[in-house]
UniProtKB/TrEMBL annotation:
Residue ranges of PPR repeats: 44-78, 79-113, 114-148, 149-183, 184-218, 219-253, 289-323, 324-358, 359-393
Gene3D superfamilies tied to this protein: Tetratricopeptide repeat domain
Name of the protein described by the UniProt record: Pentatricopeptide repeat-containing protein
Similarity comment text for this entry: Belongs to the PPR family. P subfamily.
Source domain of life: Eukaryota
UniProt entry keywords in alphabetical sequence: Repeat
SUPFAM superfamilies for this protein: HCP-like (SSF81901), TPR-like (SSF48452)
DNA sequence: GTAGGGTTAG
């Protein structure tokens, strides 16, 4: 009687742990377990498996491993579900060799892999751009006569699409359907995404119709996939229409889709509309995370409303939100746009001190601001002192020098850039050559042109 | 446990 009661209570504890883990509240889940142990309950294999999956998902594979050790210390043997969770965790963190090691370890421990072990392994190979190995796993499944799961086919179709074999994915889909496979909503979403990604928006649209005709109801994933596809191919109005439909149907329950739309509007200069959507994010009660914050912050900075931007930043930081490298880059760009170069420089220096190492974007923004306002010497000085430069840095300087009609300096920089194997925009190379010609420096222009040709031959 | 999605510079 007592044992049945304990079992029931352990199950109850596991339900609690699972729901907390789902909400990523791992500390609370641990507290539940500690309390359980205090009243005499023993965590079982299900408790540990739940924890391992959650730690792998939220923290990382090492955290998952440490739970495995805790589990073993407690005298509980891992099972196939334990290993599946670890393999899935390794896949998520892009650790192919770890996946393979875990699979071997599982076999050594005489734990029989199930269809999900194979599914995960197959997915792992696809993720690493190894479709042949993935397909071999699929053949292994068939050979061992393990009964497949519909997810097996979904993973196959997805993997083929992600590895550039959209046509094969389509063929597989059709032939599976002929053999009685009933596509799920996720199957359609996978195909639609693959088709959009490979530039076949029209076919994607056909599948969207087929999805509805076969009785499925598109979900938030379907909508965002199609919307992004429209924006990518510059069908802005079409994309906005999809967003409106998404909103009407109640699929905009977080700030994600709003941020996509607002950024697109901002990039295409539709600031009033961007303002409307972002205003909605602010008043909607969505929790502002750093990305949605940055989106709004960017709008204020682009509009030159630095006071509003600073107020927002101040409030956010007081509320415990930590700014990131994007926030800093956006602020520096905003300062440059409003002519506050001194403050921008101070901010940049502060960033170096506080250890934001990937601030290249911010430095590029700064030299761009200087070039645009004709402060070429200052820009050159900064450019030369930068310990990291990319093609954007070079492009910006080359463009700036040309604008100041310093074509000789521009061509010198362009050549050093080419020598370094860095490729800048074709249009920027053109500006240099045309500029040299317009000053009568035809010989120099020809030299630059031939060097560009030479570099092309060498690099491709 | 397989699908989507947001932020910065030329």
């Amino acid at each position: 009687m007592r044992r049945i009661k304990d079992k029931l209570s352990t199950r109850l504890m596991n339900v609690c742990v699972a729901s907390l883990c789902k909400a990523k509240q791992l500390e609370k889940a641990e507290i539940v377990i500690v309390d359980g142990i205090r009243i005499g309950l023993q965590p079982d294999v299900v408790t540990y498996n739940t924890l391992i999956a959650a730690y792998c998902r939220v923290v990382g594979i090492d955290a998952g491993y440490s739970i495995l050790h805790r589990m073993k210390d407690a005298g509980i043997n891992p099972d196939v579900i334990t290993y599946n969770a670890l393999i899935a965790g390794a896949t998520r963190y892009s650790l192919l060799s770890k996946c393979l090691d875990l699979f071997d370890e599982m076999l050594e421990m005489r734990i029989l892999p199930d269809i999900w072990s194979y599914n995960t392994l197959m997915n792992c190979f696809f993720k690493f751009g190894k479709p042949d190995e993935a397909y071999r796993v699929f053949q292994d499944i068939l050979l061992k006569d393990i009964s497949v799961h519909s997810a097996t086919f979904n993973i196959l179709i997805n993997g083929l699409c992600m590895n550039g074999y959209t046509e094969n994915a389509l063929m597989l889909f059709r032939s599976l359907k002929c053999h009685g496979f009933i596509p799920q909503l996720v199957t359609y979403n996978i195909l639609i995404h693959g088709l959009c990604k490979s530039g076949r928006g029209n076919v994607a649209r056909e599948f969207l119709n087929e999805l509805v005709e076969s009785g499925h109801i598109p979900n938030a994933i379907t909508y965002t996939t199609v919307m992004k596809c429209c924006f990518r191919y510059r069908q802005f109005e079409e994309g906005l229409k999809i967003f409106a439909e998404m909103r009407n149907k109640g699929y905009t329950y977080d700030a994600f889709a709003y941020c996509t739309v607002a950024s697109m509007l901002l990039k295409t200069g539709r600031i009033t509309e961007a303002n409307e959507y972002l205003g909605y994010i602010i008043t909607s009660g969505f929790t502002l995370d750093i990305v949605s914050f940055n989106t709004i912050f960017n709008l204020y900075c682009k509009e030159g409303q630095l006071d509003n931007a600073y107020t927002l930043l101040y409030e956010a930081e007081n509320g415990g939100l930590e700014s990131d490298k994007y926030t800093h880059a956006i602020l520096i760009d905003g300062l440059c746009r409003t002519g506050n170069f001194q403050e921008a420089q101070q901010q940049l220096n502060r960033m170096s001190v506080t250890g934001f190492d990937s601030n290249l974007v911010a430095w590029n923004s700064f030299i761009n601001g200087l070039c645009k306002t004709g402060q070429l010497d200052y820009a050159t000085h900064i450019f030369e002192s930068m310990d990291m430069k990319d093609s954007v840095s070079y492009s910006t300087m080359v463009r700036g020098l040309c604008q100041a009609r310093r074509f000789r300096a521009a061509s010198k920089l362009l050549l050093s850039c080419i020598r370094g194997g860095m490729n800048i925009l074709k249009s920027d190379k053109r500006i240099v050559i045309d500029g040299l010609r317009s000053c009568g420096l035809t010989h120099e222009a020809r030299k630059v042109q031939s060097k560009i040709q030479m570099a092309k031959l060498l690099h491709y």
